[in-house]
Design brief:
CATH architecture: Orthogonal Bundle
Structural class: mainly alpha
Order of helices and strands: HHHHHHHH
Number of domains: 1
Largest sheet: none
Shape: globular
Radius of gyration: 26 Å
Strand content: under 5%
Number of strands: 0
Helix content: 40-55%
Distance between the termini: 80 Å
Oligomer: single chain
Length: about 180
């Protein structure tokens, strides 16, 4: 079979009159996005500076703490303050071999995690009411209510944790 392309005489070229969208669309960061990025960085840096000054093994996880707090709608300082109260910011982590990578005393130091990242993810999800096993304890709770559930044995526990939260950033009110 042989195919031959032959010009069609008498037909003029068709001009594309569609406006070019590519030349008219500008992509820019919005002021909100820029501000949110700046706030995120400020919080992550505040956490890392605070933890570094205390010789914490959790220093360097600032961005992870902020990311998970945002994702689970909890105060960005909450987990760091709990770690401060429970394990001196991770310097004295749970001794139970089954509770590795647990700087929060989670589950009375009977629960371990594969990594610090995983512990931050799981405990944040739980405190935010986003974990099936603990949702009934923490869903739609204020920080104070979360702390009362987290440790109902020590009467001053919420105040002790809130004091640490204010040490991280006193200008941010605790809700």
């Amino acid at each position: 079979m042989l195919a031959v392309a032959m010009p069609l005489s008498g037909i003029q070229g068709i001009t594309d009159t569609t406006p070019s969208i590519a030349n008219k669309v500008e992509v820019t960061d919005s002021a909100i996005t820029t501000q949110e990025k700046a706030d995120f960085k400020k919080k992550a840096d505040a956490i890392d500076t605070f933890l570094t000054s205390r010789g914490s093994v959790l220093a360097g996880y600032g961005a992870k703490f902020v990311e998970e707090a945002d994702k689970n709608n909890i105060d960005w300082r909450l987990l760091i303050a709990i770690a401060g109260r429970e394990t001196t910011f991770g310097r004295n982590m749970c001794k139970n071999p089954k509770a590795q990578n647990n700087p929060f005393g989670w589950g009375s130091c009977k629960i371990g995690f594969k990594s610090i990242d995983e512990s931050i993810e799981k405990v944040s999800a739980s405190l935010g009411g986003n974990s099936e096993g603990t949702a009934h304890h923490y869903t739609n709770k204020t920080t104070l209510q979360i702390l009362r559930k987290y440790n109902s044995v020590i009467p001053n526990y919420p105040k002790e944790v809130e004091r640490i939260m204010k040490m991280i950033d006193a200008s941010d009110p605790i809700k």
